[in-house]
Amino acid sequence: MSMAHTPLSVEVSLPAQDVALITVKGYLDVDTATEFEHHLANQLHHGRRHFLLDLSEVPFMDSSGLRIILHVYQEARELPGSVHIISPTPAVQRVLDLTGVSITVPVSQSAEEALVRILQAQE
């Protein structure tokens, strides 16, 4: 019996040079992770180095989502660039904390806060 859930929606905007704000809505799991991964790969291909992953409307994320976040984190670090998780829901924050991902990948409460962190790191 499969769980019915909302299809994944991914929107990409460019708030600053080399920065992609990726807003994810819906369940980020084994059924939807490939779509999320394609959006990130496309942004890497187009030269983006910094990724703001807005997870404020993701009610559930499994290990597939974690794997993709860690993969883009590694890719971005090699550029050099960065990944910031924006405003995760409590359920997603719990997964990030339990797995230690929130120690590695910075978590910000807003895209603006993450942009400030990126600019400060470049100084």
TrEMBL record:
<feature type="domain" description="STAS">
    <location>
        <begin position="17"/>
        <end position="118"/>
    </location>
</feature>
<comment type="similarity">
    <text>Belongs to the anti-sigma-factor antagonist family.</text>
</comment>
<dbReference type="Pfam" id="PF01740">
    <property type="entry name" value="STAS"/>
</dbReference>
<dbReference type="InterPro" id="IPR036513">
    <property type="entry name" value="STAS_dom_sf"/>
</dbReference>
<dbReference type="InterPro" id="IPR002645">
    <property type="entry name" value="STAS_dom"/>
</dbReference>
<protein>
    <recommendedName>
        <fullName>Anti-sigma factor antagonist</fullName>
    </recommendedName>
</protein>
<dbReference type="InterPro" id="IPR003658">
    <property type="entry name" value="Anti-sigma_ant"/>
</dbReference>
